[in-house]
Amino acid sequence: MAKELPITETLLSRHNLTKDEYDRILLILGRVPNLTELGIFSVMWSEHCSYKSSRVHLKRLPTEGPFVLQGPGENAGIIDIGDGYAVAFKIESHNHPSFVEPYQGAATGVGGILRDIFTMGARPIAAMNSLRFGSLTNPKNRQIMEGVVAGIAGYGNCFGVPTIGGEVNFGDCYSQNPLVNAFALGIFKKDQIFYGKASGIGNPVIYVGSKTGRDGIHGATMASAEFDEGSEAKRPNVQVGDPFLEKLLLEACLEAMKTGAVVGIQDMGAAGLTCSTCEMGGRASTGIEIDLYKVPQREEGMSSYEIMLSESQERMLLVAEKGREEDIFRIFRKWEIDAVTIGKVTNDGVLRILDRGETVAEIPNRALTDDAPIYKRPIAMPSRIPERIESTDIDPLYQDWGELLEHFLASPDLASKEWIYYQYDHMVRTNTIQKPGADAAVIRIKNTEKALAMTLDGNGRYCENSPRRGAQLAVAESCRNLVCSGARPMAATNCLNFGNPEKPEIMWQFSEVIDGLAEACRAMGTPITGGNVSFYNETLGEGIYPTPVIGMVGLIEPLTKIRSSWFVNEGNQLVLLGPIVGISGDYSNALRSSLKHLTFRERIPADLYTSWVKNLPCPPIDLAIESRVQKTCLEGIDDGVIISAHDCSDGGLAVAVAEMAFSTSKGPSLGVSISLPESLDVGECLFGEYPSRILVTVDRQRVSDLMAIADFQNVEVTLLGEVFGDKLLIKQGKSVVLERSINSLKKAWTNCLEELFDVSV
Amino acid sequence: MKFGVLVFPGSNCEHDAYHLIGKVLHHPVEFIWHQSRDLKGCEAIIVPGGFSYGDYLRTGAIARFSPVMESVKNFASQGGLVLGICNGFQILLETGLLKGAMLRNRRLKYVCRHVSIRIDNVKTSFTHLAQFGDVLSVPIGHMEGNYIIPSDELEELEKRNQIVFRYCATNGKITESSNPNGALSNIAGICNFQGNVLGMMPHPERASESLLGSRDGLVIFQSIIESRPLKP
Fold first, then answer.
1. B55, A247: Cβ pair inside 8 Å?
2. pLDDT single digits (tens) A296-334
3. Each residue of B174-216: pLDDT tens digit?
C-alpha cells in the first residue's frame, strides 16, 4: 500500500466529502484510505456521479413501456423502432465547464454524449442541444453564447453528426449559470447492443483512445459545488476535446464490436478511469484489476491519483474475450489509436489499482456504485409564494398590436435561430428532412419507410412559479411538437438542471418537478429511459430557475405522414385545434406570460416588467385535453386531412401564425387572413400562452372532415381564416386588429441574433 | 459505371456519397482506404467531404500525402474522372490537381445552408446534361470555402472556361449578397484544363433525393454516369 497521508478536514473539504461520508469510508475499508482512494471515493460519491440527492426521487419516474429495451442505469436508454432496428438516445448537461470555458466546455459536452451513444454500439445519427444564457444585452453573455455555439459546431461538425435541432432561451438567472444540455441519438440493429459490463473472470480489460493527461482532474467534483468568485480560475478542470480522435474512436469501436470479441464497453466520461472500471465491474458483479503503469500517458510523472481522476477525453474501456485481443488490436492499429491491455476481470468484486504490480488502491466496486450514499434531503416549499397581480391593462402601452408582434418576433427568445444553426452541419449523413427551426427535427431511417422525430423542450420560467405544472407543460409541449411533425411520441430522456440541493426549497422544486414529469409522462404514454441531473447551478448563492429539459423521440411511419409547420398552398384553411384561450382556471394573466419574451422592452417600465416576470403565472394544463388534441392532430394527419401543423405556444397565437408564414423553405412567403371570434379579448387571444393548442392548415373541402375527427375526440376547434396573399391580416368583426406585411415581420425575426452578434460586437 | 469513394481518417461524407451511388442511382461503388494504392478498377473517383486529419493543419494538407492520392493523380493524368466535394475539393487543391487555395470564410464562421449556384460551363463530364446558366439549389457546409487565386491565374481560369459553378441569387444573378463565404468571383467550383477533375464546395450528394428537399445535385452524378471519359 502507498504511504498513508494524514486525513485532515481541509483535505476532506477539498474533496467535497462530509465527515459522515468519511466515517462511512472508514467503515467500508476498515482502515484509513490513502489519497488515491480518497480521490476515488470523492468523485464516485460526488453528486454528479452518484445522484445521491436525486436518486430517491428519480424512482418515481415511469421508465417502462412497450418499446423500451433499456431504461435508466446504462450509458443511454434504448427503444425499439421496428424492422429490427433500435435507437439509443440520451441528454446530458455540461453547464459548469461551459461557464468556465465556453468553447471547450460545450465541445466536450457534445463529445461525452456521443460516446455514451456509440459505446452501446449505435452509430450517432443526430445531435441536438438545449441552451440557456443570460440577457444578450450583456457582452459577457454574448461571449459565452458565441463560444458555446462555436464549441458545439466545432465538435459535432468534425465528428460528422448532424446537429438538427434544439432550443435556446434567455433569462437573467442564467447569466452566471449558463446551461448547456447536449442530446445525441444513434441507431443500431436490435441484436447488436453492447453494455458496460465487465463479464467473464479472467477476461482482459483494454484501454483504447486518447492518452491520459492531467486535464479535467476533479471535473465531476467541480460540477457538484456552487461557483464563487474564484470559479473562472477553475479552467484547468475543464477538458479539451479532440473531435477528430473521437471520430476515429467511433469507427474503430464499431468495427471492433463487429468482430464479436468485445464483451463489454464503456466510455470514460466524468471521473474517467475510476468510473468506467468500478461501474463495469459493479454491473457484472465482478472485480477489476488494472495496472496504471500500462495506461497510455500524455505526460510523465503522473501520480496514481491523477491517472485515476483524469477526465481526458476520447477514451474507452473495453473488456474482451480472452485470447481474442489481437482481433481488437488489429482494428485499433488500422485507425492509429492506442489500445492496451491494462488489467483483467476478477471474481472478488473489488476494484484493485496497481502501479507496477504494487497495490495503490483497493475498494469494493459496490461501495462506489450501488452502495454510494443516498440522501433524502429536507424539502420545504419556498416562503415566497408568488403574489398575484391583478390584470394590468397593457393596452395603453401597445396601441398597435402589429408593433407588439414585431417586438416579440425580434426578441432573442422567439427570433429565428438561423445565426446559431447555420454554424452547425445539420445535413451530414443525408437523412435530415425537417431542419432546425421546425417544430421537431425529422430524419429518415435509411433502408426503412420510417422517420424519427425529436425535440427538446423546457420552460424554466414556468417551473419557477409552479415546478410541477411547468414540468407537465414541458412534457406536453415536447409531445405536441412531435405530433405536429406527424410522429407518435415514444419515449423521453430528461436533463434536470437545478440549484443547490442542500437548500430545502431547491429540493422541493426538484421533487415537484419529478412528480410533474411522472404525471405527464404517464398521461402521454412516454416513459423516461434515462437522463442526467445537474445540481449546484448557482453562483454566489444565486440559482437558476428550476429547468427540466425534456428530449422526446417519436416515430413517423410511413414517410408520407411527415408534416412541415408552414403554409403550403394559398386557399388552405387555418384551423386551431384546442381551447383558443385556454381552459378555465385562475389564469387571468395569460397575456402577460408572453411578455417574458420581450427582452427588449424599452416601452415597458423596468419595474413593471420585473414584477411581471417575477410573478409570471404558469398556465394550467389538463393532460386529458392535451392528449385528445394531439390525437386529433395525428388522426387528421393519418387521414391526409391536415396539410401542415404547428405548435401554438411560445409567444401565443400571433407569433405561431407568423412562424407558419415565414418558414417556407422555397418560394415566396404566404400570408394569411384571420378573423378572431368577437367575444374574445384581442390581447389574450393574440399573445396568451396557452398549452394544448395546435394550428393546422386544411384543404377547404376537408374542413368538415377535420371537424368530425375533433368532434369525436371532443376537442374544441376554431376556424381562424385562410392562407392568402403576402400579409398577416387579423380582424375582429369589421375592425382590423393587425395588418403587417410578412416580409417586414420576417426581417425583424431573421435579423435579431445576427445584429446582436455581428454588428454590436 | 463503377465509382470509388476515398476514405481518409476524418472523412465524414463518404457514407453519403456511397449511399447515393449505390442505393439511389444503383451503380457499383466501393470505399477506397487512404493507404491503398489500388483504385479497384473504378471509373470515377469521389473525394468526399469531412475533416480529413481533423483539418488540424491546413485543410487537406495532410491528406494529400496519402498513398491513395498518388494513384488518384495518375488516374487523373490518364483522363479518369475525379470529383472533389468540400474537403475533397480542398484536398485536390493541396494535391495540385486544381489551382488556387482556400481562406477561412469571410465571416470567420462555419456555414451550413442551402445556396444557389449557377452552372457556367456545361462542357465538362460533370455538367454536360445541364443547361448553361442553370441554377441549382444545393447545400454548403464548411469553414474554409473562401476561394482565392492570383489575378493572372484567375484570368486564365476564366479564359479556359474552368469556372464551373458560381454562387448566385435564385434568379442566377451573380451578386455580392449571394456569396456565402467571400470566394473570389463567387467561385463555388472549378475544373482542370482537361475537364476531368472537378472540385466544388457545395454538396450535390446532399441534394439528390426529393425527400431531402432538393434533387438539383443529381444532374452532376448523372452527367458522370453518362460521360465518355477522355481517353489518355
1. no
2. 999 899 999 999 999 899 999 999 999 999 999 999 999
3. 999 999 999 999 999 999 999 999 999 999 999 999 999 999 9
**pLDDT surpasses 60 at A584:** no
Residue A27 zone, left/alpha/beta (φ > 0; ψ -120 to 50; rest): alpha
ipTM, interface predicted TM-score of the complex: 0.97
Catalytic residue list contains B27: no
Identify the band that residue A401 occupies on the pLDDT scale cut at 50, 70 and 90.
confident
Check if A94 is active-site: yes
Distance (Å, whole) CA A239 – CA A268: 12
The pLDDT of residue A607 is 63
Which of these is catalytic: B13, B42, B86, B191? Answer: B86
Mean residue pLDDT of chain A comes to 91
Mean pLDDT of B53-75: 94
Per-residue cell: A186: 444513434
As a dihedral over the C-alpha atoms of residue A104, residue A109, residue A115, residue A118, rounded to 10 degrees, the angle is -120
N-terminal to C-terminal alpha carbon distance within chain B: 18
pLDDT value of residue B62: 93
Please tell me if residue A430 touches chain B, with a CB cutoff of 8 Å: yes
From CA B7, how far away is CA A425, in angstroms rounded? 19
Asked if A248 reaches chain B (Cβ–Cβ under 8 Å), the answer is yes
Best of A430, A446, A562 to mutate (most B CBs within 10 Å, chain B): A430
Encode pLDDT of A510-552 as tens digits.
Answer: 999 999 999 999 999 999 999 999 999 998 888 899 999 999 9
| Whole-number pLDDT of residue A642 | 98
DSSP state at residue B50: B
Exposure of A503 in the CB half-sphere (CA atoms within 13 A): 19
Instruction: Report how many Cβ contacts below 8 Å link chain A to chain B.
Output: 89
Q: Name all domains of chain B by residue range, CATH numbers in brackets.
A: 3-225 (3.40.50.880)
Would you say residue B38 has pLDDT above 50? yes
Chain B CB contacts of A425 under 8 Å are 110, 112, 141
**Nearest Cα residue in chain A from B11:** A160
What pLDDT score does B115 carry?
97
* Per-residue b or e along B70-105, where b marks 16 or more CB atoms closer than 10 Å to that residue's CB: ebbbebbeeebbbbbbbbbbbbbbbbebbbbbbebb
- Alpha-carbon distance of B194 to B123, in angstroms, equals 11
Q: Does B229 touch chain A (CB under 8 A)?
A: no
Asked if A674 and A574 count as a contact pair (C-beta separation under 8 A), the reply is yes
Residue bearing the bigger pLDDT, A422 or B229: A422
Q: Do A428 and B54 touch (CB under 8 A)?
A: no
- CA dist A177 and B93 (Å) reads 44
The DSSP string of B151-175 is: HHHHHHHHHTT-EEEEEE-TTS---
Residues of B in contact with A444 (CB under 8 A): 211
DSSP output for B179-197: -SS--GGGEEEEE-TTS-E
Q: Which residue in the set A244, A429, A666 is minimally distant from B10, CB to CB? A: A244
Q: Please give, rounded to a whole number of angstroms, the shortest distance from the CA of A424 to a CA of chain B.
A: 6
| CB < 8 Å to A244, chain B | 9-10, 51, 53-56
At residue A656, does pLDDT exceed 60?
yes
In sign, the C-alpha dihedral spanning A135, A138, A142, A143 is negative
The partner residue sitting opposite B12, judged by closest CB among A336, A428, A559, is A428
